[in-house]
Specification:
Strand content: under 5%
Order of helices and strands: HHHHH
Number of strands: 0
Distance between the termini: 26 Å
Radius of gyration: 15 Å
Largest sheet: none
Length: 92
């Protein structure tokens, strides 16, 4: 067995992209911030934020963009990828 086979998850889980978009939306709502306001504070186009939150197939946000969103939300960029308690066992 090679190292990649050892690392394979035992079950399918939602992708980081799903968690990313969901987390940004949840954090934004927790801060009582509209998408327009978050996009303005992060210095990104509203369309880009919408694509990230909805995780459309065409979006691939840069670290710079994610850092700006995190800063606008007042959180560390890594928190945008966090799996919330109780969601770690969610399967597709």
């Amino acid at each position: 067995m090679n190292i990649l086979e050892k690392r394979k998850p035992k079950k399918l889980v939602l992708t980081d992209g799903y968690w990313l978009g969901t987390n940004i939306g949840m954090l934004r709502i927790d801060k009582n911030m509209s998408k327009v306001e978050l996009a303005r504070r992060a210095g990104i186009p509203l369309r880009t934020l919408r694509m990230i939150e909805n995780m459309t197939d065409t979006v691939n946000p840069t670290l710079h963009t994610l850092t700006a969103i995190g800063a606008a939300l007042g959180v560390n960029t890594s928190e945008l990828f966090a799996i919330r308690p109780g969601e770690e066992d969610f399967q597709v």
